Amino acid sequence: MTPIRKNPRRWIRRIAALALAATGIAAQASSHREALAVLNEPCADNTDTYAWVKPGAHDKLYLIMNFNPLHEPGQGNQGLRACNGYRYQFHIGMGTSLADRVVYRVEFKNTLVPEAAPSPSDPLGGGNELLWQLTGGTETMKVTRIVRSGRPMPIDEADPTRTTVLADNLPVLPNNHGPQTDRLIYGLGTFQGYDSGDATSREVGLYDQSFVDRFIHSLANGGRVIAGQFDDPYQLDEKGVFDLVNLNRDDLGGIPGARRPPGKDVFTGFNVFSIALEVPITDLFPGGIPHNGTLVANSTDSLLRVHSSINRQRVQTVDMANAITGLKGAGDWVQVGRNGLPLFNAGLVGTQRHTLYLRSGPERDITNFGADVLFPVLVRNADALGIYRALGVPQSAVNTLKGPRLDIVNAINLGRPIPVADGFTGDVITLDAAIDSSFPNGRRLGGGTAPNRNQVNVNTVLISLIVAGNPAAGLAKGVEVNDKDYLSRFPFLAPAHQGLLQGHGGINVPTVPDIPTP
User: Fold this and answer.
1) HSE-up (13 A, CA, CB side) for residue 427
2) What is the annotated signal peptide range for this record (predicted)?
3) Is CB count within 10 Å lower at the N or C end of the chain?
């Protein structure tokens, strides 16, 4: 095929003509603060979900959920804390059904022992300290597996015959604050004070991968888990996207009417809270994966349907005695966040339905959001901005791209015979456990051609599929690498940026003009 950079007009004409014939890539990207309902509740803000099987034997399923995004590493005297009062859940359906077969639930508990008001003779430590690291406060987590039997599963399921606590009181990975915390709190090296004349204890961090690995915990089912602060693994020129799809020339094959490159990754230097779970595949296929190692293109018996959710109790009241959250929960547990194919909510669902998406499950996505998928607003936006005219795309092709877009529905379902109906088609990551995961068959973290690359540039796939009707069109290629290298083994996430010497910030000299110069 002709590279888009060499002949964009010819290329886009060809791919747009294939709009209803595109058959195989699901749209994935990220959802940071995409909905009005999460702006004031970051603990309920899912950003990305990943799900893939271990290559080769497929004997492990890897699940990652990210939430509480856009955390500046050095921000705030309490840093990024695990969220009390929420339930973070991985939901797994099987075959054609979106109904939960197994749920893995993670709950966090932060504790702080109260003490009397300060006095001149107080030793260091305790609740009167200004910084969490010195308080002696603890952060732990509980991991529970819930197995579905024949009946619907309520969100506050507590049936002991169906629930198994896989581990409890597991320490959460602490934050990467900086060199003094590494030595004085984490015990990673000898501390020398200011009076030593040696600045090493204030300038050389010791928080490394071996320290992070201490917080990988074994589970009773043979799996593993880790949770805490990590580098945000997503990358996107979000500044341009949210200036009404103001894409740069690298995103649009070099057309002269686009803004000048380069595109900049908004998430560079930011951390996020992550849960990474390793699950033995026998939890899901006790008798083994059907036709393991063999692709059966029309099969559904080896499919897993994965999404994540965040839940809290319905009633939240101010509680002065709760030093951690200041709140007390009561009543039924309700869903306040979810995520499957990232950017489904931000890239397809209209603003007035964003909160409905967060509060509902994928089982009703056809009824609730079918029109958003079939008639994507992003295509109409691109048309109004003159993108298609600049690329020489005929209006007849643009009209086809406006919908109905059955190709997007087919992509979400991997081309498998899954009914396009409530309970079967929805915003979940679908993966075939019988074969190696390769996007869109699951979503893998890392695994690209370089250590800081993902297996696929999901921005390119997303925008190309929706806007051009072909996931291989090569659009949105302005930002393709992460700011840190991913790991090639569990938990795959890169360690958090250090609060002292990494992240965002500047000297503010000279001042920045109110209207920036291009």
Assistant:
1) 32
2) 1-29
3) C
378 to 4, 147, 350, 404: CA distances (angstroms): 21, 39, 10, 13
Handedness of CA 283, 284, 287, 292 (dihedral sign): negative
Q: Which amino acid is at 456?
A: V
Asked if 65 and 90 touch (Cβ cutoff 8 Å), the reply is yes
Cβ(375)–Cβ(350) under 8 Å? Answer: no
Q: Which two tokens stand for residue 279?
A: 């699950």
CA distance 392 to 239: 26
Does residue 354 contact residue 35 with C-beta atoms inside 8 Å?
yes
Q: Extract the runs of DSSP E, i.e. beta strands, from 296-390.
A: 303-318, 327-339
**174-185: per-residue pLDDT in tens?**
999 999 999 999
pLDDT digits (tens, 9 = 90+) for 43-64: 999 999 999 999 999 999 999 9
DSSP state of 441: B
Q: In this structure, are strands 86-94 and 138-147 parallel, antiparallel, or unpaired? A: unpaired
Q: Are strands 138-147 and 163-171 parallel, antiparallel or unpaired?
A: antiparallel
